[in-house]
């Protein structure tokens, strides 16, 4: 699991979405707080202005997904794939990434303050 500053643990989750097929889904304006997403396929998903707060993403696929002005606040990503994903003007403040792959990830603008990448398995954001 991604280590946070001073050994602080990831926020606990309160609900779970497991093995969902959100391929190509439009997640615009959705809000999720303290949800564990496990094995969710978000390939080619799009969103504008979605907000994920203190969520955990484990073994999820964000391949070819497009996120615009979305927020992933204090989230934890473990074993996720971000192949050719695009983040435009997104906020990922305080999020942690462990054993994730980022091949051809594109990040434009946004706020990635206090993001941790301790277990990066391939190239980071370009």
Structural summary, described in words:
The chain has one domain: E3 ubiquitin-protein ligase SopA (Pectate Lyase C-like), CATH 2.160.20. With 126 residues, the chain is mainly beta. The strands form three sheets. It has a five-stranded parallel sheet, with no helix packed on it. The protein has a four-stranded parallel sheet with strand order 4-7-10-12, with no helix packed on it. It has a three-stranded parallel sheet with strand order 2-5-8, with no helix packed on it. It is globular, with a radius of gyration of 13 Å. The relative contact order is 0.18. It contains no helices and twelve strands.
Short synopsis of the structure:
It holds the Pfam family LD_SV2. This protein is an all-beta fold and 126 residues long. Helix content is 0%, strand content 30%.
Query: What is the H-and-E element order?
Result: EEEEEEEEEEEE
Biggest β-sheet description: 5 strands, parallel
Mean pLDDT: 90
Which CATH architecture? 3 Solenoid
Low-confidence stretches: none
Q: Would you tell me which CATH topology applies? A: Pectate Lyase C-like
Organism: Blastococcus brunescens
Protein name: Pentapeptide repeat-containing protein
Domain SV2A/B/C luminal: 27-102
Region (Disordered): 1-22
Which descriptors apply to this entry?
126 residues, mainly beta, five-stranded parallel beta sheet, 0% helix
